[in-house]
Design goal:
The chain has three helices and no strands. The protein has 96 residues and is an all-alpha fold. The protein has one domain. Helix 1 packs parallel to helix 3 and helix 2 runs antiparallel to helix 3. The longest helix is centred in the middle third of the chain and has 29 residues. The termini are far apart.
Amino acid sequence: MIGAIITGLVAIALGFYVARLWAPSASWSLLIGAMCGGVCAVVFFGVEVLTGQLVPHTTDPKKIGFWFLVLVFAAPVAGALGGFLGYRRAPEFQQD
C-alpha cells in the first residue's frame, strides 16, 4: 500500500515536471501526464515482482495484483492532474 501511494505521488511529480517542460498546450499536458502515470504504474509492478522473486515470502501476489490494478487507473489520472498543474505553472503560460 505504501509503495502504491508513493507511486501515485511520483506520477504527480513526474507529470508536473515533464509537462512543464514539454507540453505545448493544455490537452498535451494531460496526455503527457497520463503517460507518465502509466509508466510509473508499470515500474511499480516491475519492482514489486522483482522484489518478490529476489526475496521469497516477502510479498503476497494477490496484493501486488490488487495494487497494480488500482494503479493502472489511478496513476494516469494522478499524472494527468500533475501534468495540467505543471502546464499552468510554466513560465511560458500567458496569464490573462
